Amino acid sequence: MRAAVIDTYGEPPVLRPDWSEPRGDEQRQALAVHAAGLNPVDLHIASGRFYAGSPELPYVPGREGIVELPDGRLAWSDQLDQRFGSLAERTLVDPARTVPLPAGIGAAQALCFGIAGLAAWCSLEQRAKLRPDERVLVLGAGGLVGQIGVQAARLLGAGSVVAASRRPEALARARALGAEATVLTPAASDPAELAAALREVEPRGFQVVLDPVWGPPARAALACLERGGRLVQVGNAARAEQSIAAGELRGRVADVLGYTNFALPWPVKRGAFLRMCGEHLAGNLHAPYEEMPLDRIAEAWERQRQGPGAKLILRP
Ligand SMILES: NC(=O)c1ccc[n+]([C@@H]2O[C@H](COP(=O)([O-])OP(=O)(O)OC[C@H]3O[C@@H](n4cnc5c(N)ncnc54)[C@H](OP(=O)(O)O)[C@@H]3O)[C@@H](O)[C@H]2O)c1
After folding, report:
1. Structural class in CATH, domain 116-262
2. Residue minimizing CA distance to atom 1 of ligand 1
3. What is the pLDDT of residues 37-76, one digit of tens each?
4. Average of pLDDT values for 28-44?
5. How far is the CA of 121 from the centre of ligand 1 (A)?
6. Burial of 283 from C-beta contacts in 10 A (0-12 / 13-18 / 19+)
7. Ligand 1-lining residues (CB < 6 angstroms)
8. Ligand 1 center–CA 17 separation, angstroms
9. All structural domains of the chain with their residue ranges
10. pLDDT for 201-222, tens place per residue?
11. What residues does the Enoyl reductase (ER) domain cover (predicted)?
């Protein structure tokens, strides 16, 4: 079968026309991949330095996909085999760990509500336990998690949402998606300057921060938490390490909450995925995507590294 293959950690995948077929076992079946969604986690895993480990080389990457079930229905899953991922004609998955797509939603659109959508929705709903009328700040608002995060906060009852991004065009989009106010956070900014800009738009401080970036934006956001506020740490698109003064956390009685989709029970994941599909079909939730053939995997990989601002979908 055709497959994108990682031969060396730190290198992009190479397209192979004759990769060995995955073999099913008692629990898992080899199913045709209809569409694969690319995510930052695919690059982290392929770096060989992912905090949760990387598969043995060589392997087929791709943590999520839309597969064709034996009865012909299309279904989403992020429970694919570590060495036979979604960037191939076939993948290996337990059919019980798939979610058939609701009628009316396309495969590419549904993939937006998989790994990225879940990180936005469940970090707010399950981890921050967002309460009605709370003031929310969404960092990295130009990324997929950020764009869905702005809308998820609204749908989950936030009183106000402020969006922060390095890109002016992303801020305009965040406003259209429901953010009341926006703050430009240039990559090289000083955290104190960023904090001042955040305080200008929300002098009362934030009760919840959705943080997919870490680095200076997260440090600035922590300095703008209201007493007792929560920052949900979802990703480190900006930087893996950031020093925080201890007194800043104590003084604010702040909670920094680690979040990963890996820790979500399957029924919660399934429920949140279907809720987002439903919100999309009702016209309440939007996320941009771009489709390309699997042959363009090297180009897609590089674009994912830059932060494409849209979900990249590969068709095998
Ligand atoms: N914990 C989990 O389960 C989970 C699940 C999904 C994703 N994640 C993580 O969440 C993060 C975002 O994922 P995504 O799907 O939204 O990726 P994405 O669509 O590629 O977006 C990444 C965003 O990060 C921001 N960013 C990148 N480099 C930056 C820098 N140097 N300084 C400041 N901001 C920077 C950018 O936002 P702006 O353009 O707005 O500046 C960019 O659009 C990734 O780190 C990913 O690994 C975690």
Report:
1. alpha beta
2. 260
3. 999 999 999 999 998 999 999 999 999 999 999 999 999 9
4. 98
5. 15
6. exposed
7. 39-41, 115-116, 119, 140-146, 165-167, 170, 187, 212-213, 215, 217, 234-238, 259-261, 307, 309
8. 32
9. 3-113+287-315, 116-262
10. 999 999 999 999 999 999 999 9
11. 10-314
Whether the predicted pLDDT of 188 surpasses 80 = no
Could you identify the residue written with the tokens 């897609």? 300
116 CA distance to ligand 1 middle (Å): 9
CB burial of 208-242 (b: ≥16 within 10 Å; e: otherwise) equals: bbbbbbbbbbbbbbbbbbbeebbbbbbbbbbeeeb
Please check the confidence at residue 258 and state whether its pLDDT lies above 80.
yes
Average pLDDT, stretch 127-151? 98
Residue 33's closest CA among 116, 143, 105, 111? 111
Give me ligand 1 centre to Cα 213, in Å: 6
Best residue among 43, 51, 125, 213 to mutate for probing ligand 1, ranked by most atoms within 8 Å of CB: 213
Q: How far is the CA of 218 from the centre of ligand 1 (A)?
A: 12
- The answer to whether 225 and 152 are in contact (CB under 8 A) is no
Alpha carbon nearest to ligand 1 atom 17, residue: 143
Percent of the chain with pLDDT over 90: 98
